[in-house]
Write a structure and sequence with these properties.
CATH topology: Nuclear Transport Factor 2, Chain: A
Shape: globular
Oligomer: single chain
Number of strands: 8
InterPro entries: NTF2-like_dom_sf, SnoaL-like
Largest sheet: 6 strands, mixed
Number of helices: 6
Radius of gyration: 16 Å
CATH class: Alpha Beta
Distance between the termini: 42 Å
Helix content: 25-40%
CATH architecture: Roll
Protein name: SnoaL-like domain-containing protein
C-alpha cells in the first residue's frame, strides 16, 4: 500500500514562491522552484510601462529583444546569486498576477524598488515576467523590461550573466532560435 501522492504546486504557487524566495534572498528556495533545464530570458521592451503594452505581451501581440539567455538551473542560480549581491533591498512593488487559460503560464508584473548595494543608487524598473511551469517546476522565465535602465547602473556582470549575454548574441544570429519571442 502506498501513501498519498504529494501534490504538485500550481503554476501560480510556483511563480509566487520564486518571487518570494528572490525577495528573501533564499537561494535554496529559488533552487526548489526550478527544473534542471530551466531557462531565464531577459527581453528588452518598453511596452511594460503601459497596461496596453502588458496586455499585448501577454497575448503574444508584442515581443521583446532577447539580451540575455541564462541556461540551466545552475546558471540561473549563478545569475540569481549575482543579483542578491548587487541589490539591497531586492523587492518588487505593486504585484499583479495573470494566469493563462490552460494554467501553465503565469505572468508577474511588478515595479522594482531596489538599491544598488555598491553605490546606493535607486533602481526602479518595471518588469513583466512570464513563468512557464511544468509539474510544479519552472521550465522557462521570460523577463520583459527596459534593459537600458539596468545597463546604466554600471554593475559588472558575473560569470553567469556574461555567458548569458553571449548566448543572446547567438540567438540573434541563429536561424532556429528566436531572439524576439521569449520562447
Amino acid at each position: 500500500m502506498t501513501g498519498p501522492r504529494p501534490t504538485t504546486r500550481s503554476a501560480l504557487e510556483t511563480a509566487k514562491e520564486f518571487i518570494r524566495a528572490v525577495e528573501a534572498k533564499d537561494i535554496g528556495a529559488v533552487e526548489d522552484t526550478l527544473r534542471d533545464d530551466a531557462e531565464q530570458l531577459f527581453m528588452h521592451s518598453n511596452a511594460v510601462t503601459t497596461d496596453q503594452g502588458v496586455a499585448d505581451i501577454i497575448a503574444g501581440r508584442r515581443r521583446g529583444l532577447c539580451v540575455a539567455d541564462v541556461s540551466g538551473r545552475e546558471e540561473v542560480l549563478g545569475y540569481t546569486r549575482g543579483i542578491f549581491d548587487k541589490f539591497a533591498p531586492l523587492v518588487w512593488r505593486n504585484h499583479r498576477w495573470t494566469v493563462s487559460p490552460d494554467g501553465r503560464e503565469v505572468f508577474f508584473l511588478g515595479t522594482g524598488d531596489m538599491v544598488v548595494a555598491r553605490t546606493g543608487a535607486p533602481y526602479r524598473n518595471t518588469y513583466l515576467t512570464r513563468f512557464d511551469v511544468t509539474d510544479g517546476k519552472i521550465v522557462r522565465m521570460a523577463e520583459y523590461g527596459n534593459v537600458m535602465l539596468y545597463a546604466r547602473l554600471g554593475v559588472r556582470p558575473n560569470r553567469a550573466e556574461f555567458r548569458s549575454l553571449l548566448r543572446a548574441v547567438g540567438r540573434m544570429l541563429s536561424p532556429t532560435r528566436s531572439s524576439r519571442s521569449g520562447r
